[in-house]
Write a structure and sequence with these properties.
Blueprint: H1 17-22, E1 37-43, E2 49-55, H2 57-60, E3 65-69, E4 92-93, E5 99-105, H3 108-117, E6 119-124, E7 143-144, E8 148-149, E9 151-154, H4 157-162, E10 166-174, E11 186-192, E12 195-200, H5 205-215, E13 223-226, H6 242-254, E14 258-261, H7 267-270, E15 277-285, E16 291-303, E17 325-334, H8 347-365, H9 369-375, H10 393-404, E18 416-418, E19 421-433, E20 440-445, E21 451-454, H11 464-476, E22 483-486, H12 503-524, E23 534-539, E24 553-565, E25 571-581, H13 588-607, E26 613-614, E27 619-620, E28 638-643, H14 662-665, H15 667-679, H16 690-696
Parallel strand pairs: 1-14, 12-13, 16-17, 21-22, 25-28
Antiparallel strand pairs: 1-5, 2-4, 2-6, 3-5, 7-8, 9-17, 10-15, 11-12, 11-14, 15-16, 18-19, 19-24, 20-21, 20-23, 24-25, 26-27
Helix pairs in contact: 8-15, 11-12, 13-15
């Protein structure tokens, strides 16, 4: 883990850092194009039904209001592949918060006032927004998110569970969770002589361009989408969202550049959320702790217009050696906003339930929970039988236990206290798949001795500019300061989105290949470079997305120490430690930041973050940051992130695995297990808020 002197792996400072802290960086809503106007959406006030009448007369009489778009006068779009983008196309209302109008005005304040003046009469229908385990509408889908089979079964999981010497049968609940990036979803759109130009807060400008071109029936080369700086996304900006479509529609209608920045209270309704998941875990084991049966069954919800199934049972197919297993998903269509990706979709809630159940099994066995996990380490991937390209989970557990001083832990729950505080510690494992998508890139050598790598990557706060420059410098064999990167524009070589912890692996592969070709071309070149420079390109289609003979995952171990206040029920995390095995770490500085950021998000999942669906109104109650509580600085304790360097030749030219999401995966379970160790009480529903904890204490 030591810092190196080479470009790749060194703790290089982020290149855009100064621009961000000084305000020089411009985000999607901050592009003040001449003549720009603003738009504000009008959200549906019912959960199911249709618009009967809509009256924009009062709004249009307000000073500064230019127009009001509704389903009666908005531009007609081509049918989208994603139904959530078919905004203002008909009178149907699939859920509360669906856009029924868009007010365009000279100023943001006028647009907001105009939206409040629009009068809508609805034809409401009865709605159902409540997820239950035995909901009559539940069904088994063909597949879960990511293309995973909805169900998998090996051996006789039921019979071996019934006959197991020791067993655990427990239910766990994870509530709806919301992405809430610091920069809300926003876009500034303009039309220039039939060409659409958009600044969008997106995790992938290439797919936004393709989507807008299809919706507005344009050739893709007549659309440019720029996402130069993005203030977080966590999955919610992984695909185009309604705001960018509304901005483009309003710009076409008015002939003016238009900015649409969604109010934070509308984010839960319009940009996706982590769907609630109801888990049933059944583990059977021998008296020595070897798993004989593993069953993980998940029920979740989706919307009426788009199926999205959180793949929360999939991690159980990968983690532990169990000869008899059953994993499955059921989904219930409800009158709710469409769920979507949220950081570590599937893995975060699925591993919370699995790792909590493993802790319960360790308690039932009277076995150390670290040793229980090690005892069930598989030789090959349990689901496919493929060999792992690399798997150092045991080393992560051992190293984490050493750093955490785990051996001094008294395994008996409720034995440590300090006044009214009960103290405890817990552990959980983590995993995340290696995902790589095809991308293209170019590398240019300039006559002045500098180099430019171009790829339509998106930096959503992860330091992509910096790390890609390091990849390029390493492949070219030149100092880092001589390399510049151009990213965040759909006119650049097309690239995959920043999602699934796949960005650096995908873009870096293309950049590495282009730079390797350029280096070879420079070796053969004689004399000075021509004025335009020398350029090579790469396209990893067919290689980056080729099937692998190996099961490829990153792994990690999380350790947590907590205090539980017996008077107030408040849980405080005193220490948090993560140890990871994620291939070669490409930038020690940005990697540590990513790990710690994920762990902080996992802390929020465990203790503060949670949303409830109001059954009467069909609305998320915690719709803003006043009610939906994300961790603040005061909530984050001493957090440590370390890693074990892996030499894995089966990944990509850099030998790297994704690191953006694995930090969240095991954190919530480690904290929950620590709370059990502190109190002796097993809490199985997140978040562990003071009222919930206090009610469970004896």
């Amino acid at each position: 883990m030591a810092d190196t002197d080479t470009a790749l792996g060194a703790p290089a400072e982020r290149r855009e850092g100064r621009d961000k802290v000084t305000g020089a960086a411009r985000y999607a809503a901050e592009h003040t194009v001449s003549g720009r106007v603003h738009a504000w959406p009008v959200a549906a006030a019912i959960a199911s039904g249709s618009v009967r009448t809509i009256d924009a007369g009062e709004a249009l009489r307000l000073p500064g209001v230019l127009t009001v778009l509704t389903h009666e006068n908005a531009p007609r779009l081509a049918d989208p592949d994603d139904p959530t983008l078919a905004v203002l196309q008909n009178s149907r209302i699939p859920h509360r918060g669906w856009p029924v109008a868009l007010v365009v005005a000279e100023t943001l304040e006028a647009a907001r006032s105009g939206a409040a003046a629009v009068r809508v009469e609805y034809a409401a229908r009865d709605h159902d927004v409540t997820l239950t385990e035995n909901h009559p509408g539940a069904y088994v889908p063909d597949e879960a998110n990511g293309g995973y089979p909805a169900q998998r079964e090996q051996g006789d999981s039921e019979g071996t569970f019934t006959s197991a010497a020791v067993s655990v049968d427990a239910d766990y609940r994870v509530p709806p969770l919301h992405n809430h990036p610091m920069e809300p979803h926003a876009a500034t759109a303009r039309w220039d002589d039939g060409r659409l130009v958009v600044h969008d807060s997106s995790q992938g400008a290439t797919v936004v361009r393709a989507t807008l071109a299809a919706l507005f029936r344009l050739p893709e080369d007549r659309v440019t989408v720029m996402s130069e700086h993005v203030g977080g996304g966590f999955g919610s900006k992984g695909t185009p969202r309604p705001h960018v479509v509304l901005a483009a529609m309003a710009a076409r209608q008015t002939g003016r550049p238009v900015t649409v920045a969604l109010p934070r209270r509308l984010l839960p309704a319009l940009v996706g959320h982590r769907a609630p998941t109801l888990h049933r875990l059944r583990l059977g084991a021998t008296e020595q702790g070897s798993l004989t049966s593993l069953r993980h069954e998940v029920t979740t919800h989706t919307s009426r217009i788009k199926e999205f199934v959180e793949q929360a049972a999939v991690p159980a197919r990968i983690m532990y050696a169990a000869p008899n297993s059953r994993t499955g998903h059921r989904v219930v269509p409800l009158d709710v906003p469409s769920p979507s990706w949220m950081r570590a979709p599937g893995e975060a809630p699925g591993m919370y339930a699995l790792e909590s159940a493993m802790d319960e099994l360790a308690t039932a066995l009277g076995m150390d929970p670290v040793e229980l996990r090690i005892a069930n380490e598989p030789d090959t991937e349990p689901d496919s039988g493929k060999p792992f390209s690399s798997r150092h989970l045991v080393e992560c557990l051992r190293e984490g236990a050493r750093r955490f001083d785990w051996s001094r832990r008294d395994p008996r729950p409720g034995t440590r206290s300090a006044g009214p505080l009960l103290l405890g510690s817990g552990v959980a494992a983590a995993m995340y798949p290696v995902l790589i998508q095809p991308s293209t890139a170019t590398a240019e050598a300039r006559p002045d001795g500098t180099f430019v790598a171009r790829v339509n990557a998106t930096d959503i706060g992860t330091g992509a500019r910096t790390v890609l420059a390091q990849v390029a410098a390493d492949a070219l064999g030149v100092p880092l300061e001589r390399v510049r990167t151009a990213i965040g524009n759909s006119d650049l070589p097309s690239a995959s989105l920043a999602g699934g912890s796949s960005g650096t692996a995908s873009w870096g592969w293309a950049v590495h290949e282009a730079c390797t070709r350029l280096r070879a071309a420079l070796t053969e070149h004689t004399g000075p470079l021509p004025e335009p420079g020398l350029t090579e390109s790469a396209d990893t289609q067919g290689s980056a997305d080729a099937d692998s003979d190996y099961s490829r995952y990153a792994f990690g171990a999380h350790f947590a120490e907590v205090s539980v206040d017996t008077v107030t029920g408040e849980v405080r995390v005193r220490r948090l430690l993560g140890v990871y095995a994620a291939g070669h770490i490409l930038n020690a500085r940005t990697a540590r930041s990513q790990f710690i950021g994920g762990m902080t998000m996992g802390l929020g999942m465990a203790l503060t973050e949670g949303s409830t669906m109001d059954a009467a109104f069909g609305d998320f109650t915690e719709a803003d940051l006043a009610a939906y509580h994300v961790p603040a600085h005061a909530d984050v304790p001493a957090v440590e992130a370390h890693w074990i360097d892996e030499d894995d030749p089966h990944l990509n030219p850099m030998g790297s695995k994704g690191i953006g999401e694995i930090g969240i995966v095991g954190t919530a379970a480690a904290i929950g297990n620590a709370v059990h160790h502190a109190t002796g009480v097993r809490y199985r529903e997140l978040p562990l808020t003071p009222d919930r904890v206090l009610a469970g204490l004896p």
